[in-house]
Amino acid sequence: MYKNIEKKTKLLLKDQVEYQEGQVVSKTLVQNDYVSVTVFSFDKGEEISTHASGGDAMVTVLDGTGRFTVGGEIFILTEGETLIMPKDVPHAVYGEEQFKMLLTVSF
């Protein structure tokens, strides 16, 4: 079930979180045993350090440019680009500039 978001309303996902200086901001839209859907904003230079997920994670950049390190390999993504980060593979996310992303994790 979706939460924290209007239903039956046309919207832009990138407008669901604002940039905040020196911060990573997140808004969870779905969280259950099968899937997690979260929108994030990263200020330039902010990051989520290396970690692994218990499910396959798909990120789509909604605005700006982000750097994703997956299993030691670096990927630079810009608006509209998507990357799959496999379950149990260490990954990190860094704001090359301010950017927003949609994260969907399937368990």
Automatic annotation (TrEMBL):
<feature type="domain" description="Cupin type-2">
    <location>
        <begin position="39"/>
        <end position="102"/>
    </location>
</feature>
<dbReference type="InterPro" id="IPR011051">
    <property type="entry name" value="RmlC_Cupin_sf"/>
</dbReference>
<dbReference type="Pfam" id="PF07883">
    <property type="entry name" value="Cupin_2"/>
</dbReference>
<dbReference type="InterPro" id="IPR014710">
    <property type="entry name" value="RmlC-like_jellyroll"/>
</dbReference>
<protein>
    <submittedName>
        <fullName>Cupin domain-containing protein</fullName>
    </submittedName>
</protein>
<dbReference type="InterPro" id="IPR013096">
    <property type="entry name" value="Cupin_2"/>
</dbReference>
